[in-house]
């Protein structure tokens, strides 16, 4: 738990720092902003296309899953945009996790190509709001197609097992190969803060929400001395039934084009 | 405006943190790593019992166990607690007359080279016995009964005489004749089976080959083993299948044997200044594989000797069969040069191939059976017995002597007193044979799930379990547990049973009554234990490996 807290706290801090940095990009010194406003008033530049990298995060307990890819967006009409995303999902390869009170090493195999399509609605742009903050708020919806929707990992005892004068290696004790299968098509809904309508040719955006990955199905295959652990698959599947909806966060850097 | 943006950024950061921490649910709650000792692939459960099935107490007190042989020398034998065993006396501990042995995990036993070792049991007032045990690649669990003969109540076919005479300066002044008489089976009369004549002035020597000069009587104990009864053959020190040196294991067709121990004034005698003739009475039913008929006058019998601390029979020459002039009985005379176990027996080295015994059973669950292997011909001498628990499709490997045909019989239960299930004949060095059981037990088919919950996980036992009807004395092999699970038809409704497991050198015992009301029948017809609850329960907690 302590490890997870550190990872997520640092991540949250990093997000805040990115937001601070993003804010610094769009704010500038007050005098300059006023002058700019005077110069470009009454309208800001409008872009049609955006392209750029996207980084996404989601987590299941201590397993942090990240997506890295590129996204292309296009304005459909004022306040409405569509986007296409091509990403690769992965996770750290090794984790430590207690099963009961036995520490297990978990080697993950979570890698998949993602294709996403979505729609962003900026309600306050449509309503003609002058507030920068309000104009940057959006509602996002869409779906990802996950080529390989399984979370696979192989668990083994972290520590050797002693039997009298003999010590079994983790390899001799056995492995538990677990596959958590989710849906290939995973719709999502979320909220975001996207400064596209500030008229800059580079902007940051962040959005977060919930995606629906379906009720995870768990299969376990265990070997050697860990063979009876296969019975834990039902328990794990039961526990994961509340993970049909999982939160996600995405950070975007958009290069805006006409 | 600036202030509101800062608040907004902070708010967004907190939302991010909240989102991430929303995934703090614990998917691994209640998910345990469950361990079993199933990778101990080869186990042997040896019970030391009185050879007399009618003994008041079937268990000789405080037997001392000694192991020997290749498997021990190679460091492959362990206790079920993981302690390495060696060939020192008492290395293997007997826990209430049971010795549980395990082959070192992950040891690969090839089909052509099974593991061999010997187990010797000694107990006060009993004749020690040694049994050769073979572990093939297919033997996951063997139940072995090592029977000891009580000196005061020897079985038919075994006789003992302890006698003494005065000795001066380590020798005897006159010829000293020792006679061993044995009860004739089915009668109350005895017959002379062994006569030994110690000539006057024989010099007796100790283990260092020094003449013994101790003051005291010359005392000699002679135990004879005839070929007349299975109990006698089973009690032969060193066993009827054993090593003859240079890695050769043989099956013996026993004609007769003597175990001789002597001392002068308490100093053990090892050898003599001249050979001592021992005349042995022979059964006319002994099978001679050389002539493929029973022994006759003029047949040459190989002579063997084996030291008490050795597991190898050494060939000492041959002895000729002749007829006693008075009784007309077949006899032979061997010249004993040192005090050991001596026998006259035909030997047949084991076949190059093992013989696979396949089991076909109508029962869906494991059946406990007693296997008996006899040579065809003559007295149909017993060669080996096995206690097994088998399911349809299981198999075991046998190592049998060449040039001998066999009859293999399978009985329900733990002895040949049970129902005969199947009998087959095996030709010499047959590659395989099939034993078929069509017996369907009238007992219910009970399924058990044995699990012990420990603070750091769950443990499921794999290994031997013994049981008996409460109030009886002799433990019998129960259906073994594999990963904590077993299905058995050995238990009857409304009967109270004792169960025990020897694990980590500790005996775990439970007593349970099998009540139909506490079981529920599944769709497949098997019964599962619920006790007094609505969820399946463990019938008895299995030994824990919580440490």
Short description:
By secondary structure, chain A is an alpha+beta fold.
Task: Give your account of this protein's structure.
The complex is a heterodimer of chains A (about 260) and B (about 550). Chain A is of the alpha+beta class and about 260 residues long. In chain A, about 20% of the residues lie in helices and about 50% in strands. In chain A, the strands form 3 sheets. Chain A has an 8-stranded antiparallel barrel. In chain A, strands 4-5-8-11-14 form a 5-stranded antiparallel beta sheet. The longest helix of chain A is centred in the first third of the chain and has 26 residues, at about 1-25. Chain B folds into 4 domains: about 35-150, Immunoglobulin-like; about 155-350, Chondroitinase Ac, Chain A, domain 3; about 350-440, Immunoglobulin-like (Sandwich); about 445-530. The interface between A and B is large, with 59 and 50 residues.
Keywords:
heterodimer, A: 258 residues, alpha+beta, 8-stranded antiparallel β-barrel, B: 547 residues, mainly beta, Immunoglobulin-like, Chondroitinase Ac, Chain A, domain 3, 8-stranded antiparallel sheet, 6-stranded antiparallel sheet
